Amino acid sequence: MMLQSANRRMVALWQKAGLRFMPFADAASADVPLPRLLRLALFQVSAGWVMVLLNGTLNRVLIVELGVSVALVSMVIAIPVLAAPLRLVFGHRSDTYRSVLGWRRVPYIWLGSLLQFGGLAIMPFALLLLQSQTLGPSWAGAAGAGLAFLLTGFGMHMAQTAGLALATDIVPEEKRPRVVALLYVMLLVGMMAASLFYSLLLTDFAPVRLIQVIQGTAVLTIVLNVIAMWKQEARDPARTAHARDTQRLGAALATYRRNPGALRLLVAVAIGSAAFSMQDILLEPYGGEILGMSVGETTLLTGLWAAGTLAGFAWAARSLNHGAQMYRVAARGVLIGLGAFSAVILASPLGLQGLFYAGAAAVGLGGGLFAVGTMLAAMGISVRSDSGIVVGAWGAVQATAIGLSLLLGGLIKNAVNAMAVHGGLGVALDTPATGYLAVYHLEIGLLFLCLAVLGPLTGRSYNQGPTTPMRFGLADMPG
Q: Which residues form a coiled coil (predicted)?
């Protein structure tokens, strides 16, 4: 009897330890065990690799190593923004998909994976042609690079939107915040792994190595997506029957807009996402051109940003579990962003790489708090809409704002530098850093505007009743 009692106490102890040291263990359920959730989350790892490649490594390589114009690089890398508004369409189409096979999400994950693979497969050759074209029309390099980025962007947005909707479909409603946390963390894990991988392989840059790295990424991402969606969605022909009634996109949007505060929240998401992302295409070139850092050193900036975002995610989770308001968590991230961009600005005149690294990590910290707060707010207020339209609306606004900010960041940097070089801004500002610093100051202004938009959402009219703690994310991590 004493031995059985000791065994029971030991089992109870291990169960508590498991929930403490494996914070996502209770995200699983009887129908969706943890190994299945982790396998599904691989599509987020795939998306993380592509994001680092497009927004981190390639913009530095094109601008510094290949000598391509910043404005042209901004336009090419911002091309995936053309697909961002379609996230709303992708989500709604997967909600209302008609098929005799009985799948709603899997066809969109598969098609998105194929488009992404095709774009990455042709991308290195298009980029090298863009840099040193000797044959054919002059527009061929830009057209090839544009096509590669367009296919990759369309594929990534489609697969990610359908994957997030599938994840919310297959888990019970009370588990969804935990599953969203897991998916978000896996995205950051993918970004940190990719950042380390690219920094090691591209330390000694060579065109052949660039081809190998990008095409290796193409193979890796499609393998991860196939593993992620394998036997995840149950076939239900009745749910995708041609004869069933479906809601049109306009009606679905009207339903979504009737949620209190939905439009104001989306405006805040747009402004805040643009503010935190406008420097993405400039941060690594800024380190290389102004602070004299190598490719490996600047690529690690993405890893620091992802680590900061993960820390912000854990902080947001702990705050929400203790009853904090989602909009206040988002506003806290905006305030941290103000200090982060100030550190990045001061790194140039002070010549401090350490301050630059700290600023990059703090940008991730503030961005993580902002993303988590607004994402959960969007899920919380959308009680009338299907998961596809909810995920699609939030993702479309966020991705569109990020893409446009990337484009504007490069154009503004070039325009300001051109004025500074020709003496239009005075002798004191006649430096290569002026254009970069102008963009960082603009981001600070956008963050103040975002705070003004978020303010009314913290009022009682948008928050009826007491705030209840939610079981979410990394709040149970030890320490």
A: none
pLDDT tens per residue across span 121-179: 888 888 777 766 656 667 777 788 888 888 988 888 888 888 888 887 777 766 666 67
Helix axes 140-170, 42-52, angle to 10 degrees: 150
Whole-number Å distance between alpha carbons of 396 and 258: 18
Question: For 352-370, what is the mean pLDDT?
Answer: 85
pLDDT value at residue 26: 44
Q: Which pTM was predicted?
A: 0.68
CA dihedral 268, 269, 270, 273 (to 10 degrees): 120
Whether 199 and 295 have beta carbons less than 8 Å apart is answered as: yes
Are 195 and 52 spatial neighbours (Cβ–Cβ below 8 Å)?
yes
